[in-house]
Specification:
The protein is of the alpha+beta class. It contains 4 helices and 4 strands. Strands 2-1-3-4 form a 4-stranded mixed beta sheet.
């Protein structure tokens, strides 16, 4: 093989190697571009998920805040309604208490009422000996009806008339005066207790009003609620 043939063969080998290198370079370039595109797509998708997750998180926070604000507004409205109801109920009770004070003005009617309250208290206690407490201004009136009350009790209970001791040391609160109209007071009535003080029957007009009000309070609130709704 002469030098020309050797040179020609070398040139062919060089061209082949260059061609091989070029193809390999192209393959590497294509592979690198594909891997880059895949990596880029993965990064984009990951960022998209992050953005969507952040959006969902903020949307939930906004929704929760709205629910909390709505709940607070609803509770505030309910409190206002309940406060308004309480104001009306208290005004009604105050009005009833004021009217209750006039019960004792009619002496004959009040005397009959006191006797009925005493008999009712005796029937509840069913004690042979009781202590009776009243307002100081009612002492004379009470003393005038005690015997009638004991006889009426004995007839209704089919029992012996009890001994009633009028408490002359401690009296119920007096009616309100013009100087202290908002202070503690008693509209009338009586309190009876067993001699040992273990059993007490509060039959004052104020206590009876409280009992009636507690019993009627649900009906009053329902009525007020219906009026508010309409």
């Amino acid at each position: 093989m002469n030098d020309a043939d050797v040179s020609k063969q070398m040139q062919q080998m060089v061209r082949f190697i260059k061609l091989e290198a070029q193809e390999k370079a192209n393959e590497i370039s294509i592979s690198a571009e594909e891997e880059f595109n895949i990596a880029k797509l993965q990064i984009v998708e990951a960022e998209k998920r992050k953005v969507m997750q952040e959006y969902d998180r903020k949307a939930k926070q906004v929704d929760i805040r709205k629910k909390i604000e709505f709940s607070m507004q609803l509770n505030a409205s309910r409190i206002k309604v309940l406060q308004a109801q309480d104001d009306v109920v208290n005004a009604m009770k105050d009005s009833a208490s004021e009217e209750l004070l006039s019960v004792a003005d009619d002496k004959n009617a009040y005397k009959k009422l006191l006797k009925g309250l005493i008999v009712q208290s005796l029937l509840r206690l069913k004690e042979p000996s009781v202590l009776l407490r009243c307002r100081e201004i009612d002492v004379e009136l009470i003393e005038s009806i005690l015997e009638e009350a004991k006889e009426q009790y004995a007839e209704k209970a089919n029992d012996c008339a009890p001994m009633i001791t009028l408490d002359n040391r401690v009296y119920l609160l007096p009616p309100p005066s013009s100087e202290e109209s908002n202070g503690p007071s008693c509209a009338g009535g009586v309190i009876l207790a067993s001699q040992d003080g273990k059993i007490v029957c509060d039959n004052t007009l104020d206590a009876r009003l409280d009992v009636v009000f507690r019993q009627k309070l649900p009906e009053i609130r329902k009525l007020l609620l219906r009026k508010a709704s309409s």
